[in-house]
Amino acid sequence: MASATHLPPLPGIRDIIRLYRLRAKKQLAQNFLMDMNLTRKIVKTAGNIDKGHVCEVGPGPGGITRAILEKDIERLVVVEKDERFLPGLELLKSASSGRMDIILNDILQQDMAGLFPTELAKPWKDKPPNIHIIGNLPFNVSTPLIIRWLEQIANQKGAWSYGRTPLTLTFQKEVAERMVAGIAEDQRSRLSIMCQYLCKVKLNFVIPGQAFVPAPDVDVGVVHFVPLIKPRINLPYKLVERVVASVFHFRRKFSKKGVEILFPPNTRAELTNEVFEKADLSPKIRAYQLSVEEVGRIASAYQAICDRTPGLDDYDYRSRESLRELKELRAKRQEMALIMMGSSD
Fold first, then answer.
1. In angstroms, rounded to a whole number, what is the distance separating the alpha carbons of residues 207 and 35?
2. How many CB atoms lie within 10 A of CB 183?
3. 200 has which bridge partners?
4. Is the peptide bond preceding residue 214 cis, with omega within 30 degrees of 0?
5. Above 70 in pLDDT, residue 44?
6. Which of 81-85, 111-115, 213-217, 318-322 is modeled with the greatest confidence?
7. Minimum mean pLDDT range among 18-27, 115-124, 245-254
8. Which helix (H) or strand (E) holds 226?
9. What is the Cα–Cα distance from 180 to 188, expressed in whole angstroms?
10. What's CA 161's distance to the chain center, in Å?
């Protein structure tokens, strides 16, 4: 049974905000969660954190921080970019019985590898270490941050050099729904594949926007991630990311259209057909209808072509050279069509 730690009497979150004249900055997409019942529910979603080491991302005025410190944790490290929150966080630190440290830094720049004791590390095949990442993320940071962390999970770097460290994070409800969306669901997207090929992902609950101050125009989803022992696509992260981005560039159209932009115009048709033949898929299947494993087969076929075609993995269909080649190819096709029309006359 999880045990609790009683903190000494402290000012409430609203009192902290008034005391230090804190206001959410719109440019930082900040929204404060005042209801301690909800902050405790977020921490509960992370599982049993007793005797564990926790990193909280973007603690702000400290609502989730308090809920974490109420647990019998070994140590809490909070990473906060906005120095206006430091006095309130220092107050919590002084009440934490030496269990809390504060790092003033942008989480996108923070090296997570040195935050925890090395003796906590576990082999990747074992159960996750007693390390937890928890955070109510600003909307403008959440997606680029999880994409960065997914790459670190794939490469077992950063916080994942300790093992399969779980995460409990907040996102806009729409983004959270994309992460967990199944095959052919409306929200199925690039983010669905990237999250699900590396992690077991669960949308635990939704917080109404009105619970935040200031209230955003959207609701917020609380998502729990546990890295998989074996990724569902066993290929380099950058290659998977490239293929997924291309395939889902035209999410509702035939997946053939997305695969085509992986190749230069002069070989596009031939190599695209080869990909679908090797993947044993119809080029008319739409991106949102693809399973993770089917995307993996497309990626494997693409990798085989790259292995025999030096420089192909650096090809960018948006480059000037590529656009010029495409224009020339279309002009040749038009010229051939005119010749064929003339010969038929």
1. 11
2. 12
3. 226
4. yes
5. yes
6. 111-115
7. 18-27
8. strand 220-227
9. 8
10. 18
User: For residue 55, what is the enclosing H or E element?
Assistant: strand 53-57
d(CA 341, CA 345): 7
Quote the tokens at residue 330: 């279309």
Report how far residue 226's alpha carbon sits from residue 224's, in angstroms, rounded to the nearest whole number: 7
Integer angstrom CA distances of residue 228 from 200, 253, 282: 6, 30, 29
d(CA 201, CA 182): 11
Q: Measured between alpha carbons, how far is residue 262 from residues 58, 199, 252 in Å?
A: 37, 26, 18
- Cβ atoms 255, 287 nearer than 8 A: yes
Question: How far is C-alpha 204 from the geometric centre of its chain's CA atoms?
Answer: 16
| Residues forming a β-bridge with 227 | 199
Distance CA 204, CA 202 (A): 6
Residue type, 216: P
Distance CA 84, CA 219 (A): 26
Contact (CB, 8 A) for 259 and 272:
yes
Q: Answer with the residue of higher pLDDT: 322 or 65.
A: 65
Rounded to whole angstroms, how far apart are CA atoms 120 and 175? Answer: 32
List the structure tokens of 174: 């729409």
Q: Which of 116, 170, 164 is nearest to 146 (CA)?
A: 170
Angle formed at CA 85 by CA 29 and CA 116, multiple of 5 degrees: 95
Tell me which residue of 102, 101, 35 sits closest to 67, measured CA to CA: 35
